[in-house]
Amino acid sequence: DFVLFREDPEFYSCFHIREDSRHTLYTDKMEFHVLELPKLPQELKEGNSDILLWAAFINSERKEDFDMLATKNPYISSAYKHLQVISQDREKRLEYEAREKAIRDYNQGILEAEQRGREEGKAEARTEGIQILIADHKEEEIPKEKTLAKLQKHYHLTESQAETYYIEFTKENP
Question: Using CA of residue 4, residue 8, residue 14, residue 20, what is the dihedral sign?
C-alpha cells in the first residue's frame, strides 16, 4: 500500500523481463503486475476496467464498497463470498478450511490414483510384451538360451528374472 513510481500517475503497471542490451523478451509467460493502491481514483465510474475494479476491491474497507464491487463483476462477487466465509467466526472459518482441505485431498487422491493406474498399465503392457516374445520364439522354435538373452537385453532383466518369466509363460518346469 505505497507508491512505487511517483512520476507515473497510473495506478497499474505491467512489467516483463527483457535482456538488458538487446531488449529481447525473456518469456511471454511471466509478467509482474503492480497495483499502486494510493493512486486509485476516489470515485469509480461506469465502465471501469476489471483491473480497476479488482484494485478497488483489494483496497476496500467498508461493506458497502465490497457489496457494490461484487455487483459489477462475477469473479469479484465469488471472491467476496469466499472472503465473507473465511472472515466469519472461528468455527465457520475452521469448517471452511476443512472443506477446502477435503477438496484438495480428494483432488490429490484422484491424481495419485491416475498415476498408479498408468504405472500398473505400463507394467501389464511390459508383461504382455514379454509373454508375446516368449510365445513367438517358442512357435519359431528359437532355442531357450536365445530367448532368455533377448528378454534380458530388451527388457533389462536379470538372468533369474528372464528364467522366471520363461517358466511362467511356457509352463516349463526347471
Answer: negative
Residue 83 burial class via C-beta count within 10 angstroms: exposed 0-12, middle 13-18, buried 19 and up: middle
HSE-up of 169 (CA within 13 Å, CB side)?
23
Per-residue pLDDT of the chain (174 residues; tens, 9 = 90+): 678 888 888 888 999 999 999 999 999 999 999 988 888 887 777 767 888 888 889 888 888 989 999 999 999 999 999 888 778 777 877 888 899 899 999 999 999 999 999 999 999 999 999 999 999 999 999 999 999 999 999 999 999 999 999 999 998 545
Contact 25, 17 (CB under 8 A): yes
The pTM assigned to this predicted structure is: 0.45
d(CA 70, CA 8): 29
The β-bridge partners of 15 are: 32
28, with CB counted inside 10 A (0-12, 13-18, 19+), is exposed
Residue 101 grid coordinates: 482441505
